[in-house]
Fold this protein.
Amino acid sequence: MMKFLFYMIFMIPLCFMSNMFWLVQMLLLLLMFMFMNMSMNFMNYNNLSYVYSCDMISFGLILLSIWICFLMIMSSENLLKLNYYVNFFLLNIMFLMILLFLTFSVMNLFLFYLFFEGSLIPTLLLIVGWGYQPERLQAGVYLIFYTLFASLPLLMGIFFLYGKMDTMMIYFLKFFNLNFLILYFCMVLAFLVKMPMYFVHLWLPKAHVEAPVSGSMILAGIMLKLGGYGLLRILVFLQEINLKLNYIWLIISLVGGFYISLKCFCQVDIKSLIAYSSVSHMSIVIGGIMVMNYWGYFGSYIMMIGHGLCSSGMFCLANINYERLNSRSLYINSGMMNFMPSMSLWWFLLLSSNMSAPPSLNLLGEISLMNSLISWSKLSMFMLMLMSFFSAGYSLYLYSYTQHGKFYQGLYSFYSGVSREYLLLMLHWLPLNMMILKIEYLMIN
């Protein structure tokens, strides 16, 4: 694991050199192929050391992080054209990549907390530095205060664990079973805010609307997955108390997910609608993790990877429209099929994946999560039916509003999509729909 870390650290000086924009991108792609070729035993932890290790969950999320960072650079070519602090932008992405790699690979609980919270800083800089509106400062404050408010109890919980167990290694903590109510809430709350769970989700639409395309991609692709990854690690040694209290989070996530699905129909901002749909999808993931059975764990892991690719691709599409119309309003972005018929196909493909149509990973994840939640309680079937139905509903609503209807009268000049944009969308859609052919490699053992 150390060789990959040094690879990324030695890429940092390249960010300061001129005309290195595409080289940094290609080196990230090379890093991904190197990481994929790493010989792994997926049955247990691999490359295990005192600090780092990699199991199946870490492996998938690190691969997703590298892939999304690679696509973030590809989507931000406008910065290169405008020469808008390109070197600092690349530096920011490299720091973010290093922090995410460390978050998913460290074994020490305190170091995990450190990198988990540290990844907020480059994200905040992306929003504040390269955002579009003056409200981006308010969005940054929302992001910081929501997450920091819940993370201090997590730090206190980690220190309490160290006092009790004399170890902070995640690998050893699984042998203990702790039944402290306050410790449980302290450890779990920070990850639920990061997911985000309904009631503590308001920072996410705000951050998405004000963020540049790269900020939205990393927020939707990776940042929401940090909460799920943390829960998968933490609940291993809080099993007994979680099985008694999981109904609290399950009720909130199911009812909240249904309510957010309805709220998507009220949105007039494309990015806001996609952000609220992310909250709806993540609420099912929270339910699957809290049930604590194999179907729930497997389904939540698959759903996190599928949603990371699908949601990131949808934000790219929203940005492609924004670059041409300078608006994210659904009323102005109507009738786009007249101007960009080829892009209309990509809207259809990604929105069909968002509503869990075959052969996307989202379908497999949703079936597994439904299995786990219905096995926990038959009553959850009604909420899952409604959430699935309205998920398809707001996806169709977004597609029909943007692609059909009368186009904006003030539009005089236009250009169709360029090859870079089609490649960007294809690199989101292909892994999302082709990975299902080799799903045995993603099975968690």
